[in-house]
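INFO worker-7 received task bundle
INFO bundle size: 2
INFO processing item 0
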Amino acid sequence: MAELSAKGSVAHDQHQRSAADRLARRWGENIVLAALVGLGYFLAARLSIGLVLKPEGVAVFWPAAGISSGVLIALGSRRARWPVAAGVTLATIAIHQLTADPLWAGAALGLCNAAEALITAELIELYFGANFLFDRVVQVLGLLVAAIIGTVISGIGGAVTYRLFNGPSAGLLTTWEHWFASDAIGIIAVAPLVIGLAAATRQPPPRSELIEGVSALAALAVMTGISISLPEDSWKTVAPVALLFPMLLWLAARCRPVFAAAAAFLVSMSVVATAVFGVGHFGDAGLAMADRVAQAQAAILFVALGAYVLAALFAERRASETRLARANMMLERERDNKLMSAQAITAAIAHEVRQPLAGIVTNASAAARWLGRTPPDHDEVQAALKRIQTESHRTSDVFDAIRALFRSGDQGRQPIDVNAIIREVIESLSGEFKDHAVEAHLDLTELPLVDAHKGQLREVIFNLVHNALEAMDGTTDRIRLLRVMTQRRDADAIKVLIEDSGPGIDPQKLERIFTAFVTTKSQGMGLGLAICRMIIEQHGGTLSATSDGKNGAVFQFVLPIGSITAHTE
């Protein structure tokens, strides 16, 4: 008893240490994330402050808002909300300390910035889920609406804070308008880029797409430089932006949405820089400052939303094409199944019944020979008659299985011990194992029961084992060995593997061997494996084969555990 108590104490201590380690690791990850977000926010904010239009002190857009919102949306607002909020708040305090603003003002503005990112990300996760990608038009519009709501609310807090420490000179409405416009455009221009880069990190684009996307971005940069440097008097605002449309269309049509987001960010930074430094069309000194800001913001908004909508439309089209291709493949498979239902049921019955009938004929002949002996060997006759009776029952089971196969519903399903069926099949083929000089090796793991049609499942195993026996007929340079293995596959499925030492199957033909009326045998009908696949799929499982074309083949099928809803026509 004392020993058990000591073991329990040790286990408890180990559990506590493990929990403490997980907590420490989680805290460490949160601190690192807060530091990285804070650094990114600080650098982006300093860049924005450097690009503030003088002397009014108006920011055309605030990219830091897009960084905080984009990180939260990419990582999931519920998982990263506190590290991001802490990083944004501390970065805002540091920025305002550098400009000699009161500490309380920096803290209040930091909380407003953090609340803005939290509201935007929470709205996105609430309506679109955790894995948000702007590959649908509704997601683009959702991001726009979430950005507007988040900045409207945070702008109120920001305007009140500026009024409190700047006095009546800071008009509430004017301050709120500047905050709302710059932060909303910052989110729209930058957040999709952060989200897209996070998605590309998880699933990198192909090399060809990466090269094409970078080339298109380089061409866009050149076109942007040309368009924004056009003479102010000869061109309207829409003309320079319209010149960028072919490049944006190229990126949207050929690449993932992240490249369109990069294009929007590139154009946004170019427009802001030229507006601030008085270069080209958007830096027209003859325009009032308010008009210059509005013009630049309108150009950024038009380019960003246009690029995102184009990218989303083409992404939806690509997704539709993928779904259509998958549907065509399923329709082709369904056509094969219906072809077997309408035209091949007689051939299927002949294929499946031939073997038990051959067994009946063989055993009847053996019984006649034993009776013709002097004296008759009644024990052998009785054994042959018993085998005839077994094969007759099997013939009846074949008819029942085929009838159930071509009928909708799950009639005849019951809890089945797959290992028991395998042993039964191996036993029934013991004579053929001797005739083919094949050694059988069973490696059966204890399995839970599966919900299946016993006759159908038996025919699948029988066909696969019998095919393996026939495949090894021509094998003379190695031991003829058949291995049958069963395994658990995760917690909700089982796997059965049947491996032979025959010549194997050409890897290029593996995908077609399960197609109706395709066979590798000179006298084959091409129905056995097609029916096997049909049975397994109607049980909610999968049937596949692997081979290098030299050293045998492995057929395996996976079946789910528990109640299965049968496939219906």
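INFO item 0 finished
INFO processing item 1
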Amino acid sequence: MDTAATFLGRLPLGRGWNLDGARGLLNKLRTYLPAEQIATVRRAYEFGAKAHSGQIRKSGEPYISHPVAVASILADLQLDYQSITAAILHDVVEDTPTAIEHIVLEFGEEVAELVDGVSKLDQIQFKSKAEAQAESLRKMMLAMARDVRVILLKLADRLHNMRTLGSMPADKRRRIARETLDIYAPMANRLGINDIRLELEDLGFRNLYPHRYQVIEKGLKSQLGGQKRMLKRVTNKLRKVLLEHHVQAEVTGREKHIYSVYQKMKRKEVSLEDVADVFGFRIVVDDADMCYRVLGHVHRTYRPMLGRFKDYIAIPRVNGYQSLHTMAVGPNAIPLEVQIRTRDMDNFANSGIAAHWLYKTDQSEEVAPQVRARAWLSGLEDYQADSNSEEFLESVKIDLFPDKVYVFTPRGDILRLPRGSTPVDFAYAVHTDVGNRCVSARVDRRRMPLRTVLTNGQTVTIKTERGAHPNPGWMNFVVTAKARAAIRGYLKQLRSEDAVKMGRRLLEYALVEFKAKIRHLKPEQMTELLGSMGLESRDSLYEQIGLGHQLAPIVARRLLSRNDELAAGDSESNSTELSITGTQDMVVSYAKCCYPVPGDSVMGHLSSGRGLVIHRQQCGNLAEFRKQPDKWIDVSWEAGIESQFMVAIQVEALDKVGALASVATRISNAGSNIDHVEVVDTDGDASSLRFSIRVKDADHLRRVMKQIDGMPDVLVVERVIAS
């Protein structure tokens, strides 16, 4: 077995680099790892040093100094040897010719998966740098959902990079700092790793806004002497009071972090002096009951401020953080922030999910930070299934700032939701099936719209119905990533099903020209075509046609171009027009330039990605669209359509008080609903009003217009048509 001295003696030397980093890492590992595991770390160092041989960081240090520093940060958290090994190797796949398979052979699958989870995707070509960054983060977070050590490794990697960011060009410093403040610091906070979060925030702020950082830093230093005296005075007073009541406690004054000072200045719109005059103290005791007793002693010593008490022990924050927070009036009327918590709560407040290793928590008995973090991480896999990389990133960003809204289920359970959440977000937080079948909601026993913004303390009851499904309009107001992902997934599935149906109808219609039908095609004809187009099934082909990505006439010609003998088919005549049912299929839409309704002469235009778009024959856009004859389809309305259709009308009326209300009343009396109204123009004594209304068909529209035209103050009423 190698001794520590032998280990150090065998470490490869980088030019101009001493062994302080390696010695420090080794000393940390010896406090909690057995010798055989340290030997694996040594092998990883030798492997990494050889792979990175000749590589130099921007700072001038050998590259291997960075992985060692990352491993040292994880050693402070006393992570297992696989994590330390992966930290030393985390850049070899990305920055050297080493393949991930080599890592598997040398160090096993577990270490290789950790390394792969934090490796960027440099080998894949993306449309933009933003997409590449988003996809890299998506990959890392999905790996994190399987093994949370991935994010601990990535946070340590980002922390050391931030500590050495000064050697980078200014524009790159700002970009990395922004990303750190937007993603990595909130992620550390979401997982409860407070120590890393605070340092990432201060380093990110210093590099993103160096002048602001310097101003605040200078302002705090100018008050340092007075702050130290005040901290000592209040600390001694609290210790004395607690000892008099036989309470064993640790009382410390808390240093201010520059970024948190800046955030308070922005949030409260106050000056540095107003924020700097707030002093923070932390009291750590043995158990939760003692926390509440200490709170009473604090309030008897310093008068509490009304409305400034928060009980995060009874209702923990979403990341599992627990503590009592209170504000009191100290000497010279200076505000005092006091946090009261147990030792376990303090440990988890600083280390969060990392405390799982640091404090050797039983694997089968995960405590609050682990339970909450793993619940969040498991949801990431649901979010990513129905979104692209950048949508996934935005969903994660939303979930990284989920504070302040605590609502109750009818059974009294507490759900924590992001600010701005609605009953639909609540429904999906309960269960995806509840969200999908949600039809109405009661908030504090009152029937409320589904788009109602929830506030703290409300009780929400969701009514569901069998057969109900998500409304596409929900996407306009839901805020949680889970709700957005579930709704988007449903819409994509619905769109796909509708596209398959429409694509088959369009192809059948196109085959009419050749006196053929789909069911009479020989199997080999379809098989050859699918193979040449790289499609797996007939449904894939129909979906491509239905979405407008492939043109049915061209597909029909390709199917029949080989002089294969076709069955003549049935002798009955085939329809020469595609029938439009009027149902709001996801792949059939009605042009907003001319607002067609049943009874109008119409044509269909195949639009890539949108499917079939229906236009009126009188539409002014037809001249341009007719230049693409292959994309036009003759269509007709099916009889007996019961749907409502949007249409626009313009009314010229005398500019009198109540004219708008009078026209609106006539429209309503004619059985039509108004979706939107605007005053287009006012000229002298007349006004031009444009209404978007819903009608059943062209006859219904004529009745509405006749009702309006009969008004004495109406000069002209006409249908809006694109010119």
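INFO item 1 finished
INFO post-check item 1: Confidence is low (pLDDT under 50) at residues 1-19, 121-126, 358-369, 562-575.
INFO post-check item 1: The first helix runs from residue 4 to 10.
INFO worker-7 idle
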